[in-house]
Design brief:
Two copies of one chain form a homodimer. Chain A has 192 residues and is an all-alpha fold. Chain A has two domains: 1-61, Homeodomain-like (Arc Repressor Mutant, subunit A, Orthogonal Bundle), CATH 1.10.10; 70-192, Tetracycline Repressor, domain 2. Helices cover 71% and strands 0% of the residues of chain A. The first copy, chain A, has eleven helices and no strands. The longest helix of chain A has 27 residues, at 118-144. At the A-B interface, α8, α9, α10 and α11 of A face α8, α9, α10 and α11 of B. The first copy, chain A, binds a DNA duplex (30 and 30 nucleotides) through α3.
DNA sequence: ATTATAACAAAGCATATGCTTAGATATATT
DNA sequence: AATATATCTAAGCATATGCTTTGTTATAAT
């Protein structure tokens, strides 16, 4: 009955996500998206309606992406405090290689986006709740493993750790490595 | 020998700072600046060269502004731990009034700006070093007052607190009040 | 009073922006 | 084979963007 798409919507969406991640929302033009996604503007608009919506979809995709590529170790069954420590220390890794840390797409967007943009705000919150859930599981596993005190208030401490991660996502973009290491060290000391 | 300026450069700069603070760098147009600063584009360009430079100047102005209007209590001679606690709790105040917290101009910009923009990066770092200096003084005062252990490593803990503040600047824009309070509570517990 | 200079307002410039339209092409159904 | 429909490319649209130019006005020195 009709012609087939020459592209996979999910694949081009992931490419769009990377463009937003690299440049931020406002600094990403539809021409840039067109080029990186490898499809025509017509196709972008017919698949994703408009730039704002494509951004929302990219935020959702980002959650999927980090799930597989960034938080994999922390999401493994039984992940506990030492895994969290290993993970947090990755915020300092790029300093050795000399590369610039581009930050977390969601944290960057939290800074950039107008707080009155409710559609985006909801999606940002979804992400943070996903992270918090992960942290709760890690803390729960850590109690079970005897890493931390059994009466640790998991909800309170997962909120704290979420805050620490938000701070690191900002700090790691501009602060020297030793400052980042201090933040991690003191943050984890609350479990001792 | 010539006509006088009808505006005060420093006053219109402060207005420009607020426009950037409210909208972010990319989402601020020269037309918006023109309107809010109350001067013509010609005057903007003759006083501040270009938009990028006006932004840099606005970042410097911001430091001056928060010095007077945001951190005044923490910069008072002898400010110590309880003052820091009072200050941090302000991150939750806007929740009661229902207003949206627009964040810290510098933290927002850290998220938005391309890390490769060295001119901006330097200015962001200047700001963070200003905050860190303030925190060091507060910690030093706190030791002197006997609030915290005398062998507290001021440098390490000021780095930690800077990280906490960066986290709160992000978190307070989107997270519920109780989560912010948890972050503050646990953060300050490291001094007990 | 004349002149030189700098600030002013407003229009203008080239280009970039988000998004749409027009026409060609491919494919599944009849 | 003919038709209908969804996809493709590429050009186009109105407006917004950062920045400049033009011509006028005010002021200080001559």
């Amino acid at each position: 009955m009709s012609r087939h798409k020459l592209y996979n919507s999910d694949e081009v969406l992931e490419k769009a996500m990377h463009v937003f991640w690299n440049n931020g929302y406002e600094n990403t033009s539809v021409r840039m998206l067109e080029k990186e996604m490898g499809i025509n503007q017509f196709s972008i608009y017919s698949s994703f309606s408009n730039k704002h919506n494509l951004f929302i979809e990219s935020l959702k995709k980002y959650r999927e992406y980090v799930n597989k590529n960034v938080y994999a170790d922390l999401l493994k069954p039984g992940a506990r405090l030492k895994d969290l420590e290993l993970f947090l220390n990755r915020f300092t890794e790029h300093k050795k290689t000399g590369k610039k840390y581009k930050g977390c797409l969601v944290v960057n967007s939290t800074g950039e986006i107008n707080p009155a943009d409710d559609v985006v705000s909801v999606e940002l919150n979804n992400y943070y709740m996903f992270i918090k859930g992960m942290l709760k599981t890690v803390l729960s596993n850590s109690i079970e493993a005897g890493d931390i005190s059994a009466d640790t208030d998991i909800d309170v401490y997962s909120n704290f750790l979420l805050g620490v991660m938000q701070g690191l996502s900002v700090g790691a973009k501009v602060l020297p490595g030793n400052q980042i290491r201090d933040i991690i060290k003191v943050s984890l000391s609350v479990f001792k």
